[in-house]
Amino acid sequence: MNLAHSTSSPHHHAVVVTRASDMQWLAVEDDREVGRGDASRRPDGRLFISIDAWHGTVFDRIADAMLADLPTPLYAVVDEADHDSRSAWERAGFAAARREGGYRVPTAPEVTGLGSVQPPSGVTIVPAGKAEEGPLRALDRIIRDEVEAAVGWQTMPAEVLPRPAGTTLVDPSKYAVARHLDRYVGLVRVAPLPRQPRIGLIAVRADSHRRGIARALLAHTLGSMHRAGTASAWAEVDESNAAATALFESIGARRAAGTLELVRR
């Protein structure tokens, strides 16, 4: 695919925006790349786009090209403190749809208060990398269906990563699991990033809510990090999710950043 959109830069040189592939656009001025746009479809089917351009006019031209080539709705993510980026997306017709808080989560038991937390009766925690893949994938599908039937999976944090069609659980080794008797009832996913591990998801089956399972999963996960010498982790929470916000704040997590999800319909 090689569709081109031409315009002029502030320096009056021609800027040509070319759709280099199904999911990438390149802006070239005088044989030099001056910006690019990328699209990625999340597991829930939503199409997210991002644009990297030094000048606002080039951003606008790439946005125009992508909007002409792609179906709506389209989504984008910006740092809530980056007012220039937000303004650029708003010029392209995007508006805020949801806000996500970034939390720095301590791991020390004396700070979190989780040192004495034990799983509920009949529940055991299966450490990351030890869960059976088949039952783990089944739990993932059940939780996703339950979330979609309630608040919608779009309210849950999700990395913009290319994934095979129908695949949501990419790396089972990143998941610790809560097991009640002979079935999996809750999970926590941690990306073991070098500087600060990222808690990407913590979820419990609807029929096992309000038993302290999520808290027990956090106690296990943060305790393991602390013993490994990690002082804090990172987590994102949708601001409309009062229960998740209360859970993290109750263990000493502090909001340190925020992200805006924008949409153009």
Automatic annotation (TrEMBL):
Origin organism lineage: Bacteria, Bacillati, Actinomycetota, Actinomycetes, Kitasatosporales
InterPro entries: Acyl_CoA_acyltransferase, GNAT_dom
Every N-acetyltransferase domain range: 123-265
Organism: Streptomyces siderophoricus
Protein name as it appears in the record: GNAT family N-acetyltransferase
Pfam families, per database record: Acetyltransf_1
